[in-house]
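re the bet — no i am not wrong, look at it urself. input seq straight from the record:
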Amino acid sequence: MNIQTIIVVILFASALFYIGRMVYKSLTAKKGCGGNCKCGVDFSGIETDKAHQ
C-alpha cells in the first residue's frame, strides 16, 4: 500500500464514522429539553403547586 491509499482509507473511515455518529444522534431518544431550548414558549405565567403553599 502506498501513502495515498492509506490516506484515502483513513479519510473514508473518518467520513463513515462522522455520518454514523450523526445518524445515531438523530435516532436516539431525546430526554426533554436540554436547557438551551429555543421552542419559543413562555412558561412564566404558569403557576405551580409550590406557589400556593
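see?? The chain has a mean pLDDT of 79. told u. also Residues 1-27 form one domain. so pay up
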